[in-house]
Write a structure and sequence with these properties.
Blueprint lengths: L2 H37 L2 E2 L7 E2 L3 H8 L1 H33 L5 H14 L3 H11 L4 H8 L14 H11 L2 H11 L4 H9 L4 H12 L1 H16 L3 H7 L12 H11 L3 H25 L12
Antiparallel strand pairs: 1-2
Length: 299
């Protein structure tokens, strides 16, 4: 068989095996993205044909007071939840890194909440725990602090959702554990001989050597924080209450798109969120050169 014919058959076979993924990508990812980009420049309510209005949706966004409020709420959540979740994951990973009895059980127990994910069921349980006369409220009353329930308190609703995010630190914890296993024990032993304390060894050896893993987790958790929806929808009743303290960006997007049927407006919000996340990710990649150290990097 000629070489050209054999290569052609191999190419056809390769694309045949790839066709299910390519078909899914076109129909379920690329196609809807292109459609939403077009709809972001239109006025569309699901029941009539889209009407082209140019950049009117985007200009209306910045004049929308509730939109600006949702941006502030979301940024506050990202700034609080992301570092706290990573800190909890890294702390537990360091504790579980050494060899000890029951290590597998503890790893599974700490990872278990992440298996649930941002499900509706766990949000309902969380709402019951932190609601009026919930377990957390009753504990507070026992110690003389009556919060009236975290769910209905505008100053406590955000910390409640941050706690829910931090509680599910299992996924980054496992990634940190994998990174800690790659730190050579010889370096720690040499530093110990030189009199370096445990804290000094962590900041000067462990943290720089797992900085690529830390950077990877930072990117993922920042993106996940911007996407918070299920827990906020369930706990707030779908309207961002109390007093707009849980009016996250994605929740407001849902309200405009599926409650008010302003699909063009919601599409503009979705693309603006995608652009902001992409820009923040690019900035993190640009700034990572000063603190992320890869193996073999001589700088």
């Amino acid at each position: 068989m000629p070489v050209r014919e054999r290569r052609r058959r191999e190419t056809v076979a390769g694309y045949t095996f790839l066709s299910p993924w390519l078909l899914g990508f076109v129909l379920l990812t690329a196609g809807p993205m292109i459609a939403s980009l077009y709809l972001s420049f239109t006025s569309y309510d699901l029941f009539s044909d889209p009407e082209w209005i140019g950049t009117e949706n985007y200009t209306k966004l910045f004049a929308d007071e509730r939109f600006r409020h949702s941006v502030i709420v979301t940024l506050g959540y990202v700034v609080l939840a992301t570092p706290l979740k990573l800190a909890a994951a890294l702390a537990v990973a360091v504790l579980l890194n050494g060899a000890r009895r029951g290590q597998g059980f503890y790893r599974s127990a700490f990872y278990a909440p992440s298996l649930i994910g941002a499900s509706v069921s766990i949000a309902i349980v969380w709402k019951a725990l932190f609601g009026t006369e919930g377990a957390v409220d009753q504990i507070g009353q026992f110690f003389g602090w009556n919060s009236g329930g975290w769910v209905g308190n505008p100053s406590l609703s955000m910390p409640m959702l941050v706690l829910l995010s931090v509680w599910q630190f299992g996924a980054p914890m496992v990634i940190f554990l994998a990174g800690l296993k790659q730190v050579p024990a010889e370096i720690h032993e040499a530093a110990l001989v030189d009199g370096a304390s445990r804290t000094r060894r962590f900041w000067s050896i462990t943290l720089p050597m797992i900085s690529p893993v830390l950077f990877f987790n930072l990117i993922l958790e920042t993106i996940h924080a911007f996407q918070i929806f299920n827990s906020a929808y369930v706990i707030s009743g779908g309207n961002g209450s109390p007093a707009g303290s849980t009016l996250f960006y994605t929740l407001y997007l849902y309200m405009r798109g599926f409650a008010d049927l302003r699909m063009g407006y919601a599409s503009a919000m979705a693309w603006l969120l995608a652009i902001v996340v992409a820009v923040l990710t690019l900035i993190m990649f640009r700034t990572s050169k000063s603190w992320v150290h890869y193996g073999g990097d001589q700088s």
